[in-house]
Amino acid sequence: MKLYIAVGSAMLLMMTMFIILFVAFYQNRQVRHQLALNELREAYRKELMEATFNGQEVERRRLARDLHDEIGTMLSVTKLSLNQLERKLSDTAENSLQVQKTRSLLDETMSNVRRISRNLVPTTLERFGLLAAIEELTEKATGPDVSVLLESPNTLERIAPAQELMFYRIAQELINNAIKHAGATQVEVQFVYLDDSVRMSVLDNGRGFDYDEAVKDRRSGLGLRNIESRLSVVDGHVTFDVAPGRGSRIHVQTRLHTAPSEEIVSSSGNGERQWQRLN
Fold this sequence. Notes:
Keywords: ATP-binding, Kinase, Membrane, Nucleotide-binding, Phosphoprotein, Transferase, Transmembrane, Transmembrane helix, Two-component regulatory system
Order of helices and strands: HHHHEHEEHHEEH
Protein name: histidine kinase
Oligomer: single chain
EC number: 2.7.13.3
Catalytic activity: ATP + protein L-histidine = ADP + protein N-phospho-L-histidine
GO molecular function: kinase activity
CATH topology of the largest domain: Heat Shock Protein 90
CATH superfamily of the largest domain: Histidine kinase-like ATPase, C-terminal domain
């Protein structure tokens, strides 16, 4: 009887152990399956975001080409026609004044078309690189009441084209937000190397904002969400050091494909020390 009880107990114990091992194996398999599924979802999300931003850039190029080739050409032809018409009109003060006003409007419209076309497609970025494009951007944003400065190493190397475009678009968004929405009079864009990463920081003396409230707003928070989406495509991240009533400090960072040279690290070291002083 005791033997039967012992054998039964052993079999029950073995069945219990088998059930426990089976449950543990099943749960582990479920966890691995869920992790794999999450990785697939993240990869799909990144591919979708990348395709979205690539589509936006293609559309920007198409619009810029149409503005330059069609609208710009039509305006130039209209100006030539106006010049010919001026020679046929009677030389009176009223006619001359009207022609001058029309020519001035045409010149202003042509200038705006060229400006919009350049903003849609940053040709300076393609031809001369990120620093030249950001420098041009800061110069255009500087005005009588606003000072926009660029602090960076002499060169930025080993940045992929997608990363350069990402930094440029984010700089456009942040500078515009600082001037238009935060009322900043001083804005500074900084680039520094940090080991195998590059960081762009945009600092301003504006009135700041509440990040949580801004993100909730579908209109005002769209730009902030776009920044985070752009960075997710290139495995970057953004830190918003913001609060109502004080200047904003926004840091955008992404990894480089290869480490920068010693010369660049040396030149960026001063930039990093200056950044620490600003903080």
